[in-house]
Write a structure and sequence with these properties.
Low-confidence stretches: 1-9
Strand order of the largest sheet: 11-12-14-15-16-17-18-19
CATH superfamily of the largest domain: EAL domain
Number of strands: 20
CATH topology of the largest domain: TIM Barrel
CATH architecture of the largest domain: Alpha-Beta Barrel
Shape: elongated
Distance between the termini: 101 Å
Helix content: 40-55%
CATH class of the largest domain: Alpha Beta
Number of helices: 23
Largest sheet: 8 strands, mixed, barrel
Strand content: 15-25%
Mean pLDDT: 86
Number of domains: 3
């Protein structure tokens, strides 16, 4: 029995408002016979009090227009003025047909004429209006983000597309807004605090749009998008949102960033927002300049990036990607001698020419394609070492890079071992460079992987040491053989005392841990002399040689061998 009661639907609640008791009773009998619950009020003041008290429960208000104290028109006006009451459907009760149009204009959903002589028609209209209202509420629940009241993703883009179709020449810009490090904000302050931040920002966005046309949506935790007429000063717009958060959360540092894509003729909203998000992503972590407006230069970069992504397969298959080799010299010998090299990749595009690694490597990293490039470089390097050994009788060891994605690939060790075996190499022929930033992703898994590779026989180099993630704890745990000092340390050691002190510190740390050091980017005699005097083991850079194609590197390697003998 209790189960049946739990499953029984809640009766719908109807408020009947009429100054005549006989009318209230007549409607009450009609409604209650059909299972509706009823409340009663005899004037507009009582009606508004009951509506506000029961606004979350009311399915319908049946409202007489001509009443003392406050009439039905005034009740409609106040309900329309309050957003919490606006969506409660109202059927007006009147004997004056001339008042029907005005009542509908003021927000009434339907009307019933007095006297109430046809109960079936009354019930049919009541049921229809309630069902329509409940249907709209369901749609509203789906289209609105419950936390902020802004649109959800699908409805936002649907409305934006419809507006664009009917008003293609109306200049509406796309704004993408994010909260910096929102996941950290949640972790430190709790999810309830994070929700309050989102609600506050949503309120300010709604206030912003109330002053102008436009729509806004919130998706994916802290991602907000706004589609609105072009604004004269977007820094001021971002400043407005930032100031609202600053004033609401005085003891917590909350930072916003924003990307803007201005209107372009013929470009649909979803494309505008793609570019606005790109602009927003470009200022991630930039607290000095958190606003980026998408421009023609950015558009060209996007087109180039997409072209390169599309052409990657052809680049690998047609060997447009070429492995270059930059020698590393032991500078503690006199004269310095080449002892190894680093494999570096270059892209010679058939139409675009030489593509800088600074362009395509970050692009492939950001799109999850870097492992394909790395596998290509490893294979070509192993084959080249085997070729040199066969034709020249010897070869120097060559370092190849392991990206963060490679390090956490469970098939990594098997893949590298197979390359060694297929090309008749030893594990010492192929050195592995691991960037120190990989340590921050999953330190324990990284340490296990590196330890296993080192036990296999590979020599491990930590690349870009000092680029921003270093810690003595990391160095004491990481099973490595060589530190590669980031070139930014080397660049100004002849001019800046601070940089010289940093280099000395790195060399002292490496010496205490019994690690060899490679200095990258050495270009001058002064840099070389300083590093040699301070005990640096190896250097690479333009002072000795730029990165060379395989055939040129072979000539250099042979010449070095002849001079040594």
């Amino acid at each position: 029995m209790m189960t049946d009661m739990a499953q029984r639907p809640q009766p719908r609640l109807v408020l009947v408002v009429d100054d005549q008791e006989i009318n209230r009773d007549a409607l009450g009998i009609i409604l209650e016979e059909k299972g509706y619950e009823t409340l009663y009020a005899e004037n507009g003041e009582e009606a508004l009090s009951a509506i506000r008290k029961h606004r979350g429960e009311l399915s319908l208000v049946m409202l007489d227009l001509m009443m003392p104290v406050k009439n039905g028109f005034e009740v409609l006006d106040e309900m329309q003025a309050e957003s919490r009451l606006r969506k409660i459907p109202v059927i007006v009760l009147t004997a004056d047909k001339s008042a029907e149009l005005l009542a509908l204009q003021k927000g009434a959903a339907d009307f019933i004429t007095k006297p109430f002589d046809m109960p079936e028609i009354i019930l049919a209209r009541v049921e229809r209006i309630i069902e329509l209202s409940e249907g709209r509420r369901l749609i509203s629940a789906a289209e609105q983000d419950q936390l902020t009241g802004l649109y959800t993703r699908n409805f936002f883009y649907e409305y934006a597309e419809n507006f664009w179709k009917f008003h293609p020449d109306r200049h509406l810009d796309a704004l993408a807004l994010n909260i910096e490090q929102f996941h950290v904000l949640n972790a430190v302050n709790g999810y309830e605090f994070g929700d309050r931040v989102l609600r506050t920002l949503g309120e300010e966005i709604r206030a912003f749009l109330a002053e102008r046309e436009g729509i806004a949506g919130r998706f994916d935790a802290d991602a907000f998008e706004i589609y609105c007429p072009e604004q004269p000063d977007y820094a001021a717009v971002l400043g407005r949102f930032q100031e609202r958060l600053n004033s609401a959360f005085k003891n917590v540092d909350i930072r916003l960033r924003m990307g803007v894509m201005p209107w372009q003729a013929g470009v649909e909203p979803i494309r505008l927002f793609d570019r606005a998000r790109v602009a927003c992503a470009m200022v991630r972590g930039n607290y000095q300049h958190p606003l980026m407006i998408h421009d023609e230069e950015m558009r060209k970069k996007e087109l180039l990036n997409q072209r390169l992504l599309n052409d990657l397969n052809a680049a690998i298959e047609e060997e447009q990607l070429r492995v270059y080799f930059q020698p590393k010299y032991d500078i503690q010998r006199d004269p310095p001698r080449m002892v190894s090299a680093e494999a570096l990749v270059r892209w010679v595009h058939p139409e675009l020419g030489m593509i800088s690694p600074g362009v395509f490597i970050p692009l492939l990293e950001g799109n999850g394609l870097i492992t394909r490039l790395d596998h290509f470089v490893w294979r070509k390097t192993a084959e080249q070492i085997a070729s040199w050994r066969k034709r020249c009788g010897f070869a120097v060891p060559v370092s190849v890079n392991l990206s963060r994605a490679d390090v956490f690939d469970r098939s990594l060790e098997e893949r590298l071992t197979r390359l060694i075996q297929e090309n008749g190499l030893t594990f010492r022929d192929l050195k592995l460079e691991v960037t120190e930033s990989a340590y921050t992703d999953n330190a324990r898994e990284l340490l296990d992987t590196v330890r296993s590779l080192r036990e296999k026989g590979f020599e491990i180099e930590m690349d870009d040491f000092g680029s921003g993630y270093s810690s003595l704890n990391m160095l004491s745990e990481m099973p490595i053989d060589v530190l590669k000092m980031d070139m930014k340390f080397i660049r100004n050691i002849e001019q800046k005392k601070t940089d010289r002190q940093l280099v000395r510190l790195v060399l002292d740390i490496a010496r205490s841990l019994k690690l060899r050091v490679v200095a990258e980017g050495v270009e001058t005699e002064g840099q070389l002399a300083f590093l040699k005097k301070r005990g640096c083991d190896l250097v690479q850079g333009y002072y000795f040689s730029r990165p060379l194609p395989a055939e040129e590197f072979e000539k250099l390697m042979m010449r070095e061998k002849e001079e040594e003998t």
